[in-house]
């Protein structure tokens, strides 16, 4: 099993864009960064690192509060998501320079950025990504680019030597004269344009590396709420135990473990105030919560290696055999055993964990509740018995 890191970047950045209410931010920043890198004559190895760092630069933004601009302007929020992104990337089997580039992408030339580092200590690649980031958040895509070029270039020129490296500013001013640059940024298929610019020696993860990546993603997801900080990790371990009980081959067992890690990735679009609400959810809030498995499957299906199995196992975890689940109301004949295993383990894990509105339940109570669900036709006896063996 080989997974393209470029595919992972594209899919996850798409989810972050949805969560932040921003269209194609990561592809735009990546595109601008690569075009600047070309004009600046950077070597292929450096452009490759910038490609991944620019796509990953906002991976630390996991709070779907719709305050996209604030998270880029407020220095405390900017520093926070830079650190989270850095810590996430440090866990991955990729060049450590990429993590550094992300950590310092909110530094300014004069040292007035998130960490207070100036141009002499901030990686040059981070300075490129920073300018690209600022250009995208400054552009108003509801208006034609030609109405904004003069204002944007004048602003960048004014901030030359203050916020932005003069060398990078000169490259941007040259780039801004090309209509194709702006037309590409406005192109609804920009993501495909950027993917076509991916490095020739693309990075691929094998399944062991993908497990590490998935676990790191699960930590980001679960950290959205103090009530779910170990949810995906423990669920993943339980489904993996069941995989060994039923004798799945190593690769399929690891795929199921990945599905466990990533089953709640769609929660990145759910605001924290809903996830952590102590009282009863409103009808509107419940519909927002119910959207998360839809986004899980949508995003994971964009990764070719996940499309036929992991995306379904993860995305179907709220479906029930009596067709009472969501978001697709799939029934017994449409849900595989592995779909149902992830689903029943999710219920068990949720029951034994603290929630804003109750304390975690004892194991025996949780098992009793799930037994009633089986009797009421929501799960089958097969997966219930497997769950009992796994947790005994």
UniProtKB/TrEMBL annotation:
Q: Which organism is it from?
A: Caldicellulosiruptor diazotrophicus
Q: Name one GO molecular function term.
A: hydrolase activity
PANTHER family, sorted = 3'3'-CGAMP-SPECIFIC PHOSPHODIESTERASE 1, CYCLIC DI-GMP PHOSPHODIESTERASE PA4108-RELATED
Give start and end of each HD-GYP domain: 206-392
What name appears for this protein in its UniProt entry? Answer: Hydrolase
Q: Which UniProt keywords apply?
A: Hydrolase
- Supply the NCBIfam families for this chain: HDIG
Keyword Hydrolase assigned to the entry: answer is yes
Record SMART domains: HDc
